[in-house]
Amino acid sequence: MIDAHMHLWSLAAPGHDWPGPAEAAIHRDYGPADFTAACGDLPVAGTVLVQSQPTDHDTDWMLDMADGAPLIRGVVGWVDLADPGAPARIAALARRPKLKGLRPMLQSIAATGWLLDPALEPAIAAMRDHGLRFDALVQPRHLPMLLRFARRWPGLPIVIDHGAKPFAAAGTLDPWREDIAALAAAGLWCKLSGLRTEQAAGQPADALRPYVDHLVACFGERLMWGSDWPVIGLAGDRYTDWHATAARLAAAAGADPDRLFAGAASAFYDLAS
Fold first, then answer.
1. How far is it, in rounded angstroms, from Cα 77 to Cα 195?
2. Are the C-beta atoms of residues 63 and 96 closer than 8 Å to each other?
3. CATH 3.20.20.140 for domain 2-269
4. What is the pLDDT of residue 66?
5. 228-254 burial string, b = 16+ CB within 10 Å, else e?
6. What spatial distance separates the first Cα and last Cα of the chain, rounded to whole Å?
7. Per residue in 141-166, pLDDT tens?
8. Where is the Amidohydrolase-related domain (predicted)?
9. d(CA 58, CA 61)
10. pLDDT tens readout for residues 21-75
C-alpha cells in the first residue's frame, strides 16, 4: 500500500496554527512512529507527507524528517506563491529528492479566484519547469476556477485533495458532480481521502457511497487513496476504519484495488525515483 495523503506536525513549531485546542481529538504532536503505529497490520510500504501549515519552516521540517524516515516516500510542501522570491525558493526545494509537489491552502483563502492571479505565474511556471506536482486543496466553490487553471497550465500535474470536499453533511451532489466530471475529463487526478470529516456527526460512512461511486467512475486509474491521518480522528475514525470503509465502497464501485491503494499514488508522485 501507498498512502497518498497524511500529515505530521509539532505543536511547538514556529508558525504552527492548526490544529488548536478546539480540535482536541488531534491536538498533540504526531511523528513517524505514531503513523507506523496507526497503520496497524496494514501493509503500508510508503506514504506521501503533506503540509499542514502555510510556513516555510513546516516544509523544511518535513523534508528533514523525511530524510530519516524511509516510509516517507514523498513530501508535498508549501511555498508563498505570491512572493517574488518564490521561483528561487522552488528551485532550491526541488533539489531535495523527496520534494514531489506543493500545496497552497486554497480552502483558507477567501478569494475563490486567487490562483488565477497573474502575480503567481512565475511561481507556477517554476513548479512546472522543476517537475513538481500541484495538490489542489479545494472546495466545491473552486472547481470551475480550477478547470480554468488546469487549461492554462497543461504541463502541470494536478491532483484534487479530498474529492474537493463535497457537501457530504447535507448529501448535496450538484453542481459538485458535474464540475468533478469536467476536471476528470481534463486529465486531473484525485484523492479518495478526507470524506469522513466532511460528514455530520453520527452520519454513517455508507452515506458516502454516491460520492465514492462518482469519483471512481470519473477518475478510474487516476484515483488514489489517502488516509488524511491524523485528521481522520476528527470524525472519530481510526486509520484502519477509513481504510476499510474506502476499500468496501470503492470495490462496490468497481475500482481496481491495486491501482487505488498503491499504483496511482506511485505513478502521480513518481515515488520510484
1. 22
2. yes
3. yes
4. 97
5. bbbbbbbbebebeebbebbeebbeebe
6. 17
7. 999 999 999 999 999 999 999 999 99
8. 2-271
9. 5
10. 999 999 999 999 999 999 999 999 999 999 999 999 999 999 999 999 999 999 9
Count of positions (residues) in the chain: 273
Q: In what order do the strands lie in the sheet with 158-160?
A: 2-6, 46-50, 72-77, 99-102, 133-136, 158-160, 189-192, 223-225
Task: Single out the residue of 28, 103, 35, 93 nearest to residue 64, CA to CA.
Answer: 93
Q: Provide the grid cell at 49.
A: 507527507
Contact between 52 and 29 (Cβ < 8 Å): no
Cα torsion 82, 106, 177, 118 to 10°: value is -10
Cα separation, 26 vs 230, whole angstroms? 7
Strand 133-136 vs strand 158-160: parallel, antiparallel, or unpaired?
parallel
Instruction: Give the closest residue to 155 by CA, choosing from 136, 134, 128.
Output: 128
Query: pTM, whole model, 2 decimals?
Result: 0.97
Eight-class DSSP state of 200: P
Q: Do 49 and 6 touch, CB atoms closer than 8 A?
A: yes
Grid cell digits, residue 228: 488524511
In terms of Cβ atoms closer than 10 Å to its own Cβ (0-12, 13-18, 19+), residue 267 is middle
